[in-house]
Amino acid sequence: MDLGQLISVYSRLILGGFAAFLAIILWAKTRDKAWMLIVISTVIIYIEIIFSVLEMLGFIDGNFLYIGTVPLLAILLPVLRMVFLITAFLVMIFKHHRQK
User: Can you tell me the distance from the alpha carbon of 18 to that of 15, in angstroms, rounded to the nearest whole number?
Assistant: First the structure.
């Protein structure tokens, strides 16, 4: 692994870990549905980072289940993250729409 890859891995792990840590702190302090969904999305992003780093280092092989020629986890994790974000935004839109 060269220096560029090392910096990329460390920065993703550190910043992603910090974002997930702050999200979990927010989770403990709020009960708002939209914020909870954003927190879940942030945690899924960190799971995705951990998974990709472990896969890059050769500790795990994420290619055990396929949909066509694409590994299932390569589809599932980004889709889950977006589903939770979309749901959070919809909850916020409906909440603000009801207040008017």
Answer: 5
Q: Is 96 helix (H, G, I), strand (E, B) or coil?
A: helix
* DSSP helix/strand/coil, 59: coil
Going from N- to C-terminal start, the domains of the chain cover 3-99
Phi, psi of 70 (to 5 degrees): -105, 130
Q: Distance between terminal CA atoms of the chain? A: 55
67 φ, ψ to 5°? -115, 105
Q: What is the pLDDT of residues 18-30, one digit of tens each?
A: 999 999 999 888 8
Q: What is the pTM of this model?
A: 0.85
The neighbouring-strand residues paired with 66 are: 71
